[in-house]
Amino acid sequence: MADDIDIDLDDIERRMDGALTALRQEFLTLRTGRASASMLEPVMVDAYGALTPINQVGTVNVPEPRMITINVWDKALTSKVEKAIRESGLGINPVVDGTIIRLPIPELNEERRRELTKVAGTYAENARIAVRNVRKDGMDQIKKAKAGGMSEDDQKFWEAAVQELTDKGIAKIDASLESKQEEIMQV
What we know:
Elements: H1 9-28, E1 44-47, E2 50-53, E3 58-64, E4 67-72, H2 78-86, E5 95-97, E6 100-104, H3 110-147, H4 152-185
Antiparallel strand pairs: 1-2, 3-4, 4-6, 5-6
Helix pairs in contact: 1-3, 1-4, 3-4
């Protein structure tokens, strides 16, 4: 249809998918009662004068469904890793055994599960807002092209294409949220 118009649907779709990717990363940090090494990704350790991710100061393993172990490479950093985990707000109490730190994942009570589903909903709403902002940018591009001589038929075609991408993005976010909420509420 409008070959001479430079509405980049691939860029719009890529940006919408970026919102979904960011949402999935945020979901990984939510504790679901099962151990996951990704729970520790946001935790930073003050190592050698710089904030460093835990996976760069030790080996993170999940030997059982409700246990994470961290084998700290430098014994001097063990107490700093323990402190970083305690202060992270994950609600996990580390147990230090030499250079190995064990993180037992406690059961979540019903109230905490409901709180986590609300947090997941907030993350999803932020992702929906990001997708809608990308849609707005796409519609603005179409309006500029219309002012530059785009026909009304072409405008409607491009608006429908952008809206279709938006609907798909929102549907993916909703499906991801529903899946995460089921995972959180699972006992």
